[in-house]
């Protein structure tokens, strides 16, 4: 996988450079008492409030929410939700097939908990896109960019930042929590593009299962610390007065809003409660799994229940295997060892989230989607490993793998008021091509927007050049996944 390069340093000169340095100072100061990407989140609040004021407040939408669980690198559809037991040995893999609670729907043996609750979700087996690389594949699925070339940064904003931007038009937000939160989110190949960093998520990093896990300074209750924030706030106002001539009025207004949201987020006890996993019953935490993925998904449920609208979380890291993602080339992982290595944790965490959505009465309001950017090659390939580690033999050892495959892959959907206990679409006998009810990135995006109350056929946002750009220029909501 390619990796994003660090941004070049900013060189400031003259009055405009002074203003830039001041903004950097303010961001650093705020980061000093809230290190979890607080500047980006609060710029989000400020920017969106200004945009809403400019464009007018839209009619209130139903406050539906979406949880997207991301599999970076791409899940092997054949080894999970779309097994091909009658394909040749060079395709089907070593896993047995098991029946599910839905007649006619089978998974591989790696997903027994999914099989037991298959009546609570729908499997879409006929997703397809056209980009073979991780950057372009992610951009196609999450922003609708049709380009097949891998680019260093996105041309179009992803659906998460678009939804965040659109929700700002609903009027003032009374909930102290951000609209858009990422718990170890997929940020490597996606982002706000021309919407700007103000629409980026409030990012929570780290392992929520660790005893020391916390979101720094969320929900401060100590009076002395709150007073300290007030003093910083006064300092910022003084700096604004000194340099007012160097900033546009809009930037100053954004910083004012930024300050208000900072104080709200940092001092409201509701924020601390929402992020506090210790408030969950031990049996619930055990059901999700006492590991990073299980507790990420439990935190996701807590946050949407508390009023977060858009929640993304990426199942990556050590639980994936040696290279810490689902990119199961033979040079990275022994694909079948990798699937076994992560299967129990994945099966438990995702099943628990889906069960919880229904048990807690969130199934109409909250849509859950579990997906990666593409599938893996149906035909198994063999190459020498590049290193030993979890799910990978010693360097030089020939081992099986599956490569990138955008022509056919699966994802699962739950909640959102959709009809569950079914499978939609189909691939051919080897899993090489989607052949029935073929769905593309535009359909994927339109479905999510529909759930959030956003009409993707009528919504345009101005790009960097001021041109109205559709948020989806092709595709329509998948009828079988519409509540």
Instruction: Specify the biggest β-sheet.
Output: 8 strands, mixed
**Number of helical elements:** 13
**Euclidean distance between termini CA atoms:** 36 Å
Summing up helix and strand content along with how strands pair, one would put the structural category as: alpha/beta
Nearest-angstrom radius of gyration? Answer: 23 Å
Mean of all residue-level pLDDT scores: 84
> Outline, from the CA principal axes?
globular
**How much helix is in the residues?**
25-40%
Task: Tell me the β content.
Answer: 5-15%
Can you tell me the residue ranges where pLDDT is under 50 for at least 5 consecutive residues? Answer: 1-62, 239-257
Lateral strand order in the biggest sheet: 6-5-7-1-8-13-4-14
Question: How would you describe this structure to a colleague?
Answer:
- With 483 residues, this protein is of the alpha/beta class.
- It contains 13 helices and 18 strands.
- The strands form six sheets. Strands 6-5-7-1-8-13-4-14 form an eight-stranded mixed sheet, with helices on both faces. Strands 2-3 form a two-stranded antiparallel ribbon.
- A hairpin with a 6-residue loop joins strand 2 and strand 3.
- The chain is globular.
- The chain starts with 13 loop residues before the first helix and ends in a 13-residue tail after the last strand.
């Amino acid at each position: 996988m390619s990796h994003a390069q660090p941004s070049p340093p900013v060189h400031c000169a003259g009055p405009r450079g002074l203003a830039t340095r001041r903004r950097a100072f303010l961001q650093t100061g705020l980061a000093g008492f809230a290190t979890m990407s607080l500047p980006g989140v609060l710029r989000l609040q400020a920017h969106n409030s200004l945009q809403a004021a400019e464009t007018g407040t839209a009619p209130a939408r139903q406050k539906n929410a979406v949880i997207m669980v991301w599999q970076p690198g791409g899940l092997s559809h054949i080894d999970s939700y779309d097994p091909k037991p009658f394909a040749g040995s060079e395709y089907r893999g070593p896993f047995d097939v098991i029946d599910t609670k839905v007649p006619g729907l089978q998974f591989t043996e790696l997903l027994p908990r999914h099989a037991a609750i298959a009546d609570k979700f729908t499997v879409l087996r006929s997703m397809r896109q056209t980009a073979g690389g991780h950057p372009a594949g992610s951009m196609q699925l999450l922003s609708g960019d049709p380009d097949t070339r891998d680019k260093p940064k996105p041309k179009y904003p992803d659906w998460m930042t678009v939804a965040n931007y659109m929700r700002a038009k609903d009027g003032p937000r009374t909930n102290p929590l951000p609209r858009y939160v990422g718990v170890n989110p997929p940020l490597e190949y996606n982002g706000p593009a021309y919407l700007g960093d103000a629409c980026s998520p409030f990012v929570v990093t780290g392992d929520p299962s660790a005893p020391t896990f916390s979101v720094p300074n969320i929900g401060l209750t100590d009076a002395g610390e709150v007073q300290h924030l007030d003093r910083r706030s006064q300092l910022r106002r003084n700096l604004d007065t000194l340099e007012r001539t160097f900033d546009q009025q809009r930037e100053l207004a954004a910083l004012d809003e930024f300050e208000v949201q900072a104080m709200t987020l940092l001092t409201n006890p509701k924020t601390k409660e929402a992020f506090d996993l210790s408030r969950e019953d031990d049996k619930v935490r055990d059901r999700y799994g006492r590991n990073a993925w299980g507790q990420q998904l439990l935190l996701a449920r807590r946050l949407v229940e508390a009023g977060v609208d858009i929640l993304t979380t990426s199942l990556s890291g050590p639980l994936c295997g040696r290279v810490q993602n689902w990119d199961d080339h033979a040079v990275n992982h022994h694909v079948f060892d990798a699937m076994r290595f992560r299967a129990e944790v994945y099966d438990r965490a995702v099943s628990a989230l889906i069960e919880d959505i229904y048990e807690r009465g969130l199934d109409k309001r909250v849509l859950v989607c579990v997906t990666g950017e593409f599938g893996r090659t149906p035909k198994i390939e063999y190459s020498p490993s590049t290193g030993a580690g979890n799910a990978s033999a010693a360097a030089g050892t020939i081992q099986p793998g599956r490569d990138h495959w955008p022509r056919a892959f699966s994802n699962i959907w739950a909640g959102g008021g959709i009809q569950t206990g079914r499978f939609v679409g189909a691939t051919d006998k080897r899993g090489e091509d989607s052949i029935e009810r073929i769905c593309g990135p535009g359909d994927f995006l339109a479905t999510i927007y529909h759930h959030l109350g956003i009409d993707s056929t009528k919504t345009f946002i101005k790009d960097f050049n001021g041109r109205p750009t559709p948020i989806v220029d092709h595709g329509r909501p998948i009828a079988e996944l519409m509540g």
